[in-house]
Amino acid sequence: MSTHSCPTRRKFLAVFGSSMAGAPLLACSSAGQAPDPVGKVDAGLASSYPVGTLEPVGNLPVAIGHDANGFYALTLTCTHQGCNMAQQGVVSGTGIVCRCHGASYDASGHVLGGPAPDDLTHFAVTVDAATGALTIDGNTHVSASTRTTV
Q1: Phi-psi region of 126 (alpha: psi -120 to 50; beta: other; left: phi over 0)
Q2: I need a labelling partner for 140 at 20 to 30 A (CA). Which of 11, 63, 91, 108 fits?
């Protein structure tokens, strides 16, 4: 197992930039940042979220959305370097932008641009039929197309 670490971009360019002319370019990459753990989260009442909304749940790194197909939840942990986009980002029904390094996602969490390597992780959503209360289960990952209807 290799124990090397990737140099910073600045250090890489300073050390290898001019001395490697004509040599093959070597690069480091890493998998996207995993979502921060959130457990089970009370997301309020379904009636509070009209179709077309996507909102962070407080300052937690999780959002609840409502589109034409139902309710969904996704992490707000940027896959680039793990910034909590509920605190350091812009979240709306039109998409998500990380203010740390400029990554952007559509409202379903698919990468649109910036340094983010992966789409955002989706979580299971349940609704209490009697009260309309929504609960996000951050321990259960689901497909990005999964929706919960009321």
Answers
A1: beta
A2: 91
Q: How many CA atoms lie within 13 A of 90 on its CB side?
A: 10
Kindly report the number of other CB atoms within 10 A of residue 84's CB atom.
19
Question: Which range of residues forms the domain containing residue 64?
Answer: 32-142
On whether the pTM is more than 0.70, the answer is: yes
pLDDT tens, residue by residue, 103-147 = 999 999 999 999 999 999 999 999 999 999 999 999 999 999 999
Output DSSP code: residue 148.
B
C-alpha to C-alpha distances, 56 to 18, 81, 89, nearest whole angstrom: 46, 19, 10
Measuring CA to CA, which residue among 142, 123, 77 is closest to residue 103? 77
Phi, psi (rounded to 5 degrees) for 139? -90, -10
Convert the pLDDT of each residue in 78-113 to its tens digit.
Answer: 999 999 999 999 999 999 999 999 999 999 999 999
What domain count does the chain have?
1
The answer to whether the CB of 90 falls within 8 A of the CB of 103 is no
Looking at residue 93, which CATH number applies to its domain? Answer: 2.102.10.10
Residues 6+ positions from 51 with CB-CB distance below 8 Å: 66, 67, 68
